[in-house]
């Protein structure tokens, strides 16, 4: 074991974990390149009766998009194995704002997720249509101001922002799916992500969002309720310290940092609270769970 890069000295806490929440990019694959042993890692979990959920902060795509992508890579994946920050945001709104109108800035899959949760959602296109005329007036009244809900919107147009600022300046609640500034792309490129869109809205309105995705412990708490597994028996595995590892630490779950993505040994050595375990890659975790390490 690496000295000083892990909080734990043995694998007891890992052995006791019943559910693994798995980051994908940088943990199981990078872009379209699946890491060696990553698919076998999932089979190892299944062999030892451990549950697993692929967890993503990406709120631009639907659960079905991820099922298709993971299956294409050879990973076992059914509907119950995938959870996105979009799903968590819809669940959060359902629990806390079910009687409110929700103004959505996000992709169609993100919007559909919120509608599927039974919420009264609308977006700029609907707001600007004639059939919405009667509601428009009442939404501007103080008691009816909608909740502004923002995701990683790769279909964003100026009108979406304009209307969000309009409501936020009337003191609307501000909920956002994920705090990531950028979404990494192949060849070192990035896309402006949900955190950057929210930064623009904050600059224009003075309102700060509440983020639902990692590192907010909401994601783990909701999954714990869904699966019946206590947080202390949940293990979050990922390559990003301020999302994957931080969400585990915030939720009282076990954490494993793999060195195949963003985090390196130097970054971890500077952390005040280190990850529960720091491993070379996902295959090393498979060997530990299998007892062959
Ligand atoms: Mg990652």
Topology:
Layout (H helix, E strand, L loop, with lengths): L11 H4 L3 E4 L6 E2 L2 E2 L3 H10 L3 E6 L6 H11 L8 E3 H12 L4 E5 L2 H9 L3 E3 L1 H4 L5 H7 L7 E4 L7 H11 L5 E3 L5 E3 L5 E3 L1 H12 L4 E2 L6 H10 L6 E5 L2 H11 L2 E5 L6 H5 L7 E3 L2 H8 L4
Parallel strand pairs: 1-4, 1-13, 4-5, 6-7, 6-8, 8-9, 9-12, 13-14, 14-15
Antiparallel strand pairs: 2-3, 10-11
The structure holds magnesium ion.
Magnesium ion binds next to loops.
Rg of Cα set: 20 Å
Which percent range fits the helix content? 25-40%
Q: Give the ligands present.
A: magnesium ion
Biggest sheet record: 6 strands, parallel
> Order of strands in the sheet with the most strands?
5-4-1-13-14-15
Shape: elongated
Average of per-residue pLDDT values: 94
- What is the CATH homology-level superfamily of the largest domain? HAD superfamily/HAD-like
Structural domains: how many: 2
**How large is the count of helical segments?**
13
Give me the CATH fold name of the largest domain: Rossmann fold
Structural class: alpha/beta
Give me the CATH architecture of the largest domain, please.
3-Layer(aba) Sandwich
């Amino acid at each position: 074991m690496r000295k000083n890069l892990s909080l734990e000295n043995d694998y007891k806490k890992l052995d006791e974990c019943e559910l693994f929440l798995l980051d994908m990019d940088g943990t199981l694959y990078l872009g379209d390149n699946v890491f060696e042993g990553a698919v076998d890692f999932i089979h190892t979990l299944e062999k030892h009766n451990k549950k697993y959920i692929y967890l993503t902060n990406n709120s631009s795509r639907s659960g079905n998009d991820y099922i298709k992508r993971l299956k294409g890579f050879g990973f076992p994946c059914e509907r119950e194995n995938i959870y996105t920050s979009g799903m968590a945001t819809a669940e959060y709104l359902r629990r806390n704002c079910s009687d409110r109108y929700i103004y959505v800035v996000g992709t169609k899959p993100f919007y559909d997720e919120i509608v599927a949760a039974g919420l009264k959602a609308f977006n700029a296109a609907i707001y600007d249509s004639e059939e919405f005329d009667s509601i428009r007036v009442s939404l501007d009244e103080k008691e009816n101001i909608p909740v502004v809900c923002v995701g990683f919107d790769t279909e964003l147009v100026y009108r979406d922002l304009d209307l969000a600022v309009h409501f936020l300046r009337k003191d609307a609640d501000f909920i956002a799916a994920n705090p990531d500034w950028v979404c990494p792309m192949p060849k070192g490129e990035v896309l402006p992500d949900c955190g950057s869109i929210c930064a623009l809205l904050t600059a224009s309105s003075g309102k700060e969002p509440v983020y639902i995705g990692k590192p907010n412990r909401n994601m783990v708490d909701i999954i714990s309720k869904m699966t019946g597994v206590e947080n202390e028996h949940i293990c979050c595995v990922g390559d990003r310290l301020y999302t994957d590892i931080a969400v585990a630490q915030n939720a009282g779950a076990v954490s494993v940092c793999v060195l195949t993505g963003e985090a390196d040994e130097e970054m971890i050595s500077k952390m005040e609270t280190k990850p529960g375990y720091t491993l070379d890659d996902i295959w090393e975790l498979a060997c530990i769970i299998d007892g062959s390490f």
